[in-house]
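not sure who needs this but someone in the group chat was asking about Mannose-1-phosphate guanylyltransferase from Neosynechococcus sphagnicola sy1 so here u go. i didnt clean anything up, its just raw.
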Amino acid sequence: MRAVLMAGGSGTRLRPLTCDLPKPMVPILARPIAEHIINLLKRHQITEIIATLHYLPDVMRDYFQDGSSLGVQIIYAVEEDQPLGTAGCVKNVAELLDETFIVISGDSVTDFDLSAALEFHRQHCSQATLVLTQVPNPLEFGVVITDDRQRIQRFLEKPSPGEVFSDTVNTGIYILEPEVLEYLPSDQELDFSKDLFPLLLEKHIPMYGYVAAGYWCDIGHLDVYREAQYDGLMRRVTLDYAYKEQSPGLWVGQNTYIDLTARIEPPVLIGDNCRIGPRVQIESGTVIGDNVTIGADADLKRPIIWNGAIIGEEVHLRACVIGRGARVDRRVHVLEGAVVGSLSTVGEEAQISPGVRVWPSKKIESGATLNINLIWGNTARRNLFGQRGVSGLANVDITPEFAVKLGAAYGSTLKQGSQVTVSRDQRSISRMVSRSLIAGLMSVGVNVLNLEATAIPVARSVLPTLSVSGGLHVRVHPDRSDHILIEFFNHQGINLSKAQEKKIEGAYFKEDLRRAQIHEIGNVVILSQAIDIYSTSFEKHLQVEALRRSSSKVVIDYVYAVSGAVLPQLLGKFGCDAVVLNASLSHTAPTTADREGLLNQLGHVVEALHATFGVQVSANGEQLILVDEAGIPIRGEILTALMVDTVLTSQPRGTVVVPVHVSSAIEQIARRHDGKVIRTKVNPTALMEACYTQSNVVLGGSGEMGFIFPQMHPGFDAMFCIAKLIEMLSLQERSLGQIRAELPRINHKTYSVRCPWTVKGALMRHLVETHAPENLELVDGVKICNRQHDSWVLILPDAGEPLVQIMANSSDRGWVDETLREYRQLVQEFVDQSQQVDELRP
């Protein structure tokens, strides 16, 4: 039997360890990851190995050669021109695979029983068997659902938090019959999870999931890399140690000298030809490779030290990685999570702060304190993008230097000479950040159309009219006045997809940023006609005569935001009687309490003036809260239902798009008007994309996010919403109070339960497994429906916090209260049990 060892990975998230080394050759316990995989294959009598290579292929070929030193036979297949992907590289060697074979990744550490997996494959007459395992946090892996016979029903590659429906994930180990490769074209970049397995599911070809017991760890980033070493030393995974166990938990290689005064606390691994000086203290969890010298009085607490490193006297190493041949001089401190790249030198008494990465062959001067990665930028973050763009504390997380690098990363994903728009709110912090982003974009040869301070609907609406690749908008976060939010748009004005966000993250984390030559530096042009472009579109999509004839009096509170500079002049063109409050610009963002106070004031003004309605505009022109003629606020679920009813009254048989968690009142309203409802994930991008791609959509959004009128532009727009509302109320001759009184009476309640990140996936899987499939909807989170009574309960993992939201919806208040109680208890008990199991684990 043959195995295909996929060893072409470049390991970008492990840089700088992989700058001069392919990921499968990164050492675990002083031996390459690929060597541990080969040893595992050999333990299960698999000795014919085809290694597929792409990145730095000679490193692996020179190390293993024909494999005879390890008792196996290795053939190499090099992808010369471009990477072919997980499936493409296997298709490339299809002529060598004439019977059942195993595909295994060269960048994970595992001790799975491959013989048992092969037996399972044969017993089930499977054409493709995926080896699966259960993990605490499935967000970075492919999630898989199987039936009671382990036949695969569904899978999703790298889900977002709301899409998690199981904690059983694909490990990248597959047992395949050669026939399945016939479904793949040759010489193309192909992926098993994206290209082959969905096709096999569609054609009903037997494909099973074998849930393996044992240890599995995908070495995805630097923290996991260190944890895998510690797990190996603690015997949590069965590995072949390269050295003799001199005493319990202490492995020492040949020709290694350890001074008698050195103190070693096992488990510790020390390689061949090492020299450990006097009074050295080595704590448990330390891994020292071959040919390493440790000077006197050094203090090592769980570092990973690669071959050939020189560690000076009185050096302090704390849970860090010291690369091949690096030199760390006297009294240096290298702190938790830091990495010193191969062949780098750290001068005497220097300090490398936690998490800082030093690229290979760099020199740090004596006495220096290094707080940033050595070439560019700050300490790398695991993820840039959240549920909505990039956000963080103003001038703490989102600093000018961060914004410059982010702009350069975004620009590096675009063609040189591309053009993008940059806009912002009127706050000083937003001006600073937007200028830094512009500098980053220019540095990689991208031209900028600067819209300066403008409402976000204006910024979105002009994009399709310009020859631009996308846009950026900077504003104070609508929900947190001390945070900045940076949003990225595509050329249509829609927020970027997850795939596009990943490209920007990749450029940012790899620090693989394009540098333009002087004559290629981008230009900046100020675009002054943005409001004119928006105004033209605004007028085109309204029944202007209805507005002019309207006797409506509207009170608008702009909360000191930039939308106050746009909407009054637009409404003034149509002769609308609008009373304006708080329209002056302020450089200080109001707090939530400030906005509530202004909303209360707005209600009094509406009532006193006998106005038709009032509205408070927020989120830089995207969101609104209505106030009816009696001065009562309309927001949240009631606002969503009211807008749907008003729009469908004007445009019956239309389609509305709402998030999955919005109340079922929307379906009831749609039935009244012969309309259709489409539900999406609870994120702005999903709403925008659905509004743009689905036919006959007349309204999208919710009271929480804002409302989309796709004929105008694909983003949320409170300003157009106000004008449209004046038009519709005038034509329908109804008031907000009347519309609200006619809305369906639906009970809709939400409760939050704390749930650790590591438990969310298991909880979702438990819910899926314990409810009948015909009652489930998995658009976002897990929705359990009672279709007879139009009732449902939704358990939705929070994207940004260790919480799950439980939402119950029914016309029966008692059912809502009882269901909320039941699922609160269920979730709490599951979380408690999971944490107890974790505490009992060694």
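also Residues 813-840 form the longest helix (28 residues). if thats useful
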